[in-house]
Design a protein that fits this description.
Layout: E1 4-10, H1 17-27, E2 31-35, H2 43-56, E3 59-63, H3 65-71, E4 80-85, H4 88-96, E5 103-106, E6 116-119, E7 122-124, H5 126-137, E8 141-144, E9 153-154, H6 157-161
Parallel strand pairs: 1-4, 1-5, 2-3, 2-4, 5-8
Antiparallel strand pairs: 6-7, 8-9
Helix pairs in contact: 1-2, 4-5
Length: about 160
């Protein structure tokens, strides 16, 4: 049996109010899995994100990308999992290593030197573009949607070609 992954989001802030409360409730998750190598080793960051998760009534776990790959399919049927990653590279690694992700929501990817804007909150460089394209080409439904219920913008080769 595979894990019940109800939603996956790329957000360079990981878990904050919008993710921890709005998205968690909108997708019906009762467990947030933060799949990020740095956060898995940072107790202070974990504590801050745990407070946000607590306010939504969901549990929260912090795993490295590899640990997520290794254990995700051992999840209990009662666990409705919301995976949060920091980068498209992390999402791609999970998908390419058989984590049963059906959709990826691209949230915030802040502007940085060398990144170009593809939406008001999503800026990408060549690595991001390659990873997003690989995810799109794998058959996973990948889109930009800021808040639950906002307009969805599919990430397509045509959109990425403009970047």
């Amino acid at each position: 049996m595979s894990a019940d992954i109800v939603f996956t989001r790329i957000d360079n802030r990981l878990v904050h109010g919008q993710v921890g409360v709005s998205w968690t409730k909108a997708v019906g998750a009762n467990l947030i899995v933060v799949a990020n190598d740095q956060a898995a080793q940072d107790p202070l960051q974990q504590k801050l994100m745990s407070v946000t998760a607590d306010s939504s009534g969901a549990g929260i776990r912090f795993f490295t990308i590899q640990h997520t790959i290794d254990i995700i399919n051992k999840a209990a049927a009662r666990q409705h999992i919301f995976i949060v990653v920091k980068t498209p590279t992390d999402a791609r690694k999970l998908i390419e290593n058989s984590v049963p992700i059906k959709q990826v929501n691209v949230g915030n990817m802040h502007p940085q030197k060398g990144k170009v804007e593809i939406s008001k909150k999503v800026y990408i460089d060549q690595q991001d573009k390659d990873d997003l394209l690989a995810i799109a080409n794998s058959g996973v439904d990948i889109f930009i949607e800021d808040y639950p219920g906002d307009r969805k913008y599919p990430i397509t080769p045509e959109l990425l070609a403009k970047a």
